[in-house]
What we know:
By secondary structure, the chain is mainly beta. It has one domain: Nucleoside Triphosphate Pyrophosphohydrolase (Alpha-Beta Complex). It has two helices and nine strands; from the N terminus they run E-E-E-E-H-E-E-E-H-E-E. Strands 1, 2, 3, 4, 5, 6, 7, 8 and 9 form a nine-stranded mixed beta sheet that branches. Strand 5 (70-78) and strand 6 (87-94) form a beta hairpin. The longest helix has 13 residues, at 48-60. The protein is globular. The mean pLDDT is 93.
Amino acid sequence: MAGAPVTLCFLTRTKGGVPQVLLGTKKTGFGLGKIVGLGGHVEPGETDQEAACREVQEEAGVVVRQQDLRDAGVVVFDFPARPEWNMSTRLFVADRWAGEPSESAEILPEWFDVGSLPVERMWQDAAHWLPLALGGSVLRLTVVLNPDNETVREVLDFTHR
């Protein structure tokens, strides 16, 4: 059930004493129009860390080194109505990188205050785990979606499976 291996990498900074995270509006494909984290599928032969760094560069033009990634855990997304969408998502947070985020064909990046994440414009599940990941937690969660493939039916700790 684990699903396709995917990574998400959240760049963080502090501006004027306020912690911020880089997210982006999805311009194509899965999640079109939603605000998402930077990331995507892990290619064959690639580690999760390599995929996270590659995706950040492709989507926002920013270079992140593997040694600057903090492991924030794993969230498994379970789509009972669309099992082909199931994914096992490795989360990373990085507060060091090179370059200025810029728009790509896939993502329009934007900084958001961690204390007021744009959850109403994100996948509904993000409110359940993103603040924890940004707060330093290492997550081991499964998010089960309802048949609408949008709303959350339940969030399970790995230990409860």
